[in-house]
Design a protein that fits this description.
Elements: H1 3-9, H2 23-34, E1 45-50, H3 53-59, E2 74-80, H4 87-104, E3 107-109, H5 117-123, E4 131-140, H6 155-158
Helix pairs in contact: 2-4
This protein binds flavin mononucleotide.
Length: 172
């Protein structure tokens, strides 16, 4: 898929099909995260691949706003290192790399934001000095579920030309 097509069609998916994802695709998604850019090239991230179905079921209790974690083929827990100043910004770029790479393979995902972090970190043996940014579920989905309309602010509410308040849209 061409990059802008990928960006402009990407949608959060919250309902998944029970279908196995080939290992090489899982690997490519992980690689997309590992290859992300970061401030000072700190790479303040680690990724825990969760493939075990009973672990995915157990994790539902920590994924407060992502009960759909139980439906997916795999999930990636994004662990960041707070000793690096921009750890969450850098790791968010890794997340976007991963979800776009997955989308290119017709795999959906959704950022799970509300986590019971303490319990999740204990469950996954994550050292206390680290942080969990998000849990990303990945799986195939019914393409009819994709929103054809993107609910975004209008271009003339967000674009400016040369200075704040000068509208761009009438000039391009
Ligand atoms: C930081 C962040 C946190 C989010 N947390 C959740 C969440 O906890 N549960 C959920 O279902 N969606 C979550 N989302 C997905 C957003 O609701 C979604 O991206 C937004 O509504 C736009 O929809 P779209 O991704 O389909 O274009 C989150 C997205 C971001 C970027």
């Amino acid at each position: 898929m061409e990059v802008f097509e990928c960006v402009s069609t990407l949608s959060s998916i919250r309902s998944y099909q029970q279908k196995q994802v080939p290992d090489e695709v899982v690997r490519e998604v992980l690689e997309a995260g590992r290859l992300a850019p970061s401030a000072h090239n700190d790479q303040p991230w680690e990724f825990i691949l969760i493939k075990d179905q009973s672990a995915l079921s157990d994790m539902k209790r920590y994924c407060v706003s992502g009960s759909f974690i139980t439906q997916v083929d795999f999930a990636i827990v994004v662990v960041t290192d707070p000793s690096s100043k921009w750890h969450e910004i850098d790791s968010t770029r890794a997340v976007q790399n991963m979800v776009l790479t997955a989308w290119n393979h017709k795999l959906g995902s959704c950022w799970i934001g509300r986590l019971e972090k303490k319990g999740l970190m204990e469950y996954l043996n994550i050292p206390k000095e680290l942080n969990v940014l998000t849990v990303l579920p990945f799986g195939y989905f019914d393409e009819r579920l994709i929103d054809t309309v993107k609910f975004r602010r209008d271009p003339d509410q967000v674009f400016h030309l040369d200075s704040y308040g000068s509208r761009l849209t009438s000039n391009l």
